[in-house]
Structure formats: C-alpha cells, structure tokens
Amino acid sequence: MAARLWSTVVIVRRATRLYVHVPFCRAKCAYCAFYSEVLRGPDRVALYLQALAAECARLAPAAGRLDSVFIGGGTPTLLGAVDLARLLGLIRQSFDVDVAAEFTVEANPDTLDAAVVEALAAGGVNRVSMGVQSFRTEVRQTLGRQGEALRAPAAVAALRAAGIRRLNADLMYHIPGQTVDQWTADLRQVLDLGITHLSAYALTLEEGTRLAAAAVPLPAEDVFEAMWQACDSVAATYGLKRYEVSNFACPGDECRHNLGIWYGDAYAGCGPAAASFDGVRRWTQPADLDRWLAGAPPDLDEIRPAARAAEILAFGLRTAAGWNLARFRQVTGMDPDQICPGVLDPLVALGLLQRSSDTIQPTPAGLLLNDAIAERIILLPEP
Ligand code: SF4
Q1: Cβ of 285 less than 6 Å from ligand 1
Q2: Which strands sit side by side in the sheet containing 299-301, from one edge to the other?
Q3: Best of 19, 34, 105, 143 to mutate for ligand 1, by most ligand atoms within 8 A of CB?
Q4: Is 285 left (phi over 0), alpha (psi -120 to 50) or beta?
Q5: Nearest atom within ligand 1 for CA of residue 147
Q6: Number of domains, the chain
Q7: How far is CA 143 from CA 19, 209, 268, 326, in A?
Q8: How far does residue 96's CA lie from ligand 1's centre (Å)?
Q9: Is residue 29 within 6 Å of ligand 1 at its C-beta?
Q10: 3-51 confidence digits (pLDDT tens)
Q11: Structural domain of residue 126, as residue ranges?
Q12: Measured between alpha carbons, how far is 301 from 279 in angstroms, rounded to an integer?
C-alpha cells in the first residue's frame, strides 16, 4: 500500500539556488576528479561565456528568486577581472537574485589580485571560498597542487578591504606522507587568518586521477581518526563548529547554498558538468566543454520518488543538526520510516543516529561514519 502511495508523490519545485561551473584551471591537480580543462587561451573563455549566456537565458524562466548563487569549478577567478565581471553581470541580468542572497565565488589565493577582488566586490559577491589545501610544500607536491598558498593572507586582507567578509578556506587531510602534526599546523595557520568557515576534506582516491594511478597508500585509519579529531579540537579553539561532515563555521556563518543542497532544495546548474534538480529529477550537463558547446543533451537521473526521498534523507543526515521531521515531510511528502523501514532504528542502536519526537540526526560517531549511514539508507530494495 505504502509503495503505491509513494509512486504518486511528486513535488516539483522552482530552483532557489544556482550553481555555475567555470571549467578552467591553471593545471590539473593530481587528486582532482572535478571536470576542468587547462586554460588554453581567451578564445575558449569567449566561447564558454557566449554559451553560458544562452544557457542562463534558457534556465532563468523556470527558476524562482535565488537565495544563493555559487560559482565554482575549476578556478573561476582564473578568468581575470574583465571576464569575471562579465560572468557576474550575466547572472544578475538573467536571474532574479534576491538582494540578501548569499553569492559565493571559488578562488585560488594567487589569482586574487587587486583587479579581480574589485570585480568580485563590484559584482555583488559576498562570500569567497579559497582553495588552499595545504601550506606545506611536500604535501602540495603530493597533491600536484600548483600556485602559492602563502598568498592566502594577502588575499584575505584584500577581500576584507573590499568589503567581502564571509571567507572560507578548503584544506585537505589524510594525504599520503602527511603527519598529524603537519595537519594540525595547517589548521592553525589557516584559522589564524580569521576566516569564519572551513572546509576540511579527507582525501579520497578518485578513479582516473594521477594520485589514484600512482597507487600510493593513504595513511592508516588511526591517523585518519586523529586528523578528524584535530579538526574538531583546533576549530573549536577558533570558535568554529563542525556542522556537516567536512564543514565548520562560526555560528551563523554556515554556507547557505550547501545547506540548501543537503536539505533537498531545488537548484539550477549552468555550465559543463553542472547539475540541476527540480525536487524529482536531476540532470547533469556533459562534463566536456566541446560537447556542452555543441549542445549535447544532459544525462537525466530519474529515479522513483521513494529512492529520491531516501537520497535526500541521507544528504540531510550529513549535517550535524540532521532532519527536522516536519521539514523532511514538507520537502519529500514522505516519512523517513516509510522510506527505509527497519533501517533507522538499527542505526540508532549502533549509536550512529539519535532521534527525538521531531528530529533525527547523526551522533558524533555517525558523522565520522557517515558513509555507512548513507549506504544503509540509499541501498533500498527495488519494489
Ligand atoms: S582541485 Fe581545483 S584547482 Fe585543482 S584541478 Fe581540480 S578544480 Fe582545478
């Protein structure tokens, strides 16, 4: 009976979040599985911006008022001040961006020169996410990471002077050869910058990357756990708290865009490899600039409503706050125990989830072992 009901639940929503993928990088990092190509010259950028304008015009009528915009990649700031200003203007002309919207751009610290910072501020960007990864030369070499992390302090000062105060830095840990002491030093060095948001990602060896091909072993599991604990303890001394598996923030400075995605909001995606979601279907543009320029169709991911709701449940359980059950029902039209009967209580018994009458959330152990929670929830039997 329940399965028949599920198949009728369809909640299609207008996007309130926009992601724009800028597919250019200076060089390809050894660990990176995101789609990007090495920037070969202005012609590719001009073609990209022209096609992006057409795509924005196509998607904008179906989108609602945007509560957040996130320009990622790739390295968006590699475009330089002039093309970046064009891109920001294009988004504002095409979409209805709320005056209070969170507007994030990803940046490499050494691309944040005075002109680029000015273009960001003039374009209404109010949050910048910097890819630092590590300050240690030997760790950066393992990651195949070019650029100069030591430019981060100057970049932070320039952004603040321009009025952009919501700053994030990405760091990576659990890297071959990296010690807990090196990791702790990286955490302190980046938080000494006074940033109010930190993304700390454990390295995973993604298929197709140079690092995976090199088959260098990752540090042992106990090193991973020590590094995980160091994130919490060092971040706490700077007033930041883990609010998602890999994300820390001062209270009130959490990334609204990503929280929206984890809690099942509808989003539009522009650019190659960008995904869109309308509450039911997800579709992803080709992860290839030439195919995207040629208008190749997106990949459509259409799964039954209960499976989509399970996915949304698992995503929300990546956050420390987890789900308010009323909100989950509002987003999916379903109840967690109907979607995955017999799954949640055993996870509670294992100490990975905790429940109250109106919430379900991961325990600290559940955040650490979040993949295990997601696997149990998402691997539902077919009806
Ligand atoms: S990690 Fe960032 S800078 Fe490095 S290749 Fe990937 S998208 Fe580009």
Answers
A1: no
A2: 241-244, 247-249, 197-202, 166-173, 127-133, 97-107, 66-73, 17-22, 267-270, 275-277, 282-284, 299-301
A3: 34
A4: beta
A5: 3
A6: 2
A7: 26, 11, 31, 43
A8: 29
A9: yes
A10: 333 334 456 889 999 999 999 999 999 999 999 999 988 999 999 999 9
A11: 15-261
A12: 12
Kindly give, in sequence order, each residue whose CB lies less than 8 Å from that of residue 27, ignoring residues fewer than 6 positions away. 38, 144, 146
Residue 361 lies in a domain: yes
Q: How far apart are CA 339 and CA 227, in angstroms?
A: 35
pLDDT digits (tens, 9 = 90+) for 177-211: 999 999 999 999 999 999 999 999 999 999 999 99
Q: Is 143 in the pocket of ligand 1 (CB under 6 A)?
A: no
Name the residue at shortest CA distance from atom 5 of ligand 1: 28
Q: Tens of pLDDT along 141-176? A: 999 998 888 899 999 999 999 999 999 999 999 999
Q: 28 in ligand 1 pocket by Cβ < 6 Å? A: yes
Q: Show the CA angle centred on residue 19, arms to residues 13 and 20, nearest 5°.
A: 135
Q: What is the DSSP letter of 127?
A: E
Residue 131 in contact with ligand 1 by CB distance below 6 A: yes
pLDDT digits (tens, 9 = 90+) for 45-70: 999 999 999 999 999 999 999 999 99
Q: Does residue 182 lie in a domain region?
A: yes
* Residue 175 within any structural domain of the chain: yes
Burial class of residue 98, CB neighbours in 10 A (0-12, 13-18, 19+): middle
Q: Which of 201, 234, 261 is the last residue of a domain?
A: 261
| pTM for this model (two decimals) | 0.95
CB atoms within 10 A of CB 207: 7
Residue nearest to atom 2 of ligand 1 (CA): 74
Cβ(72) – ligand 1 distance below 6 Å: no
In a domain, 84, yes or no: yes
- Domain harbouring 374, CATH code: 1.10.10.920
Give the helix/strand (H/E) hosting 175. Answer: none
The verdict on 82 and 143 lying in the same domain is yes
Atom of ligand 1 nearest to the CA of 32: 6
Whether 108 and 176 share a structural domain: yes
